[in-house]
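To: structure desk
From: M.T.
Subject: fold request, one chain
Message: Could you run this one when you get a chance? Sequence is below, nothing fancy, just the single chain.
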Amino acid sequence: MELLAAELARTNVGRVRIDVDEDPTSWPDDLAGGWHHMGTTRMSDDPTRGVVDRDCRIHGMDGIYVAGSSVFATAGSGTPTMTIVALALRLADHLRTVLA
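Reply: Done. C-alpha cells follow.
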C-alpha cells in the first residue's frame, strides 16, 4: 500500500490514505464479507468452453480483449486483486508485442 501510495502521489494521479488499527487482534465494526464475480467470460483455448483465449482475446474477434476476473476458469478462496493485476500486465505485454 505504501509503494502504491508513493507512486500515485509521485505521478500526481491521486492520494491514498492508509488507516492502521493499532490493535491487530480486533476486527473493524464495519467489516463485512463480499463476493467476487468471476468466470462469466471464461478463458479457454477451446472456443466451445470459453469466451477468450489464453491472450484474453475474444474467440473469433480481432482487437477485442477482456482482462479481469471474469476470464478466470475457477475461483479461489482469496481475493483476486493481485491475479487480476498480473493478468493485466501479461495482456499489456502481449498487446505491446502485437501492436508493435
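Reply (cont.): The mean pLDDT is 87. Let me know if you need anything else for the meeting.
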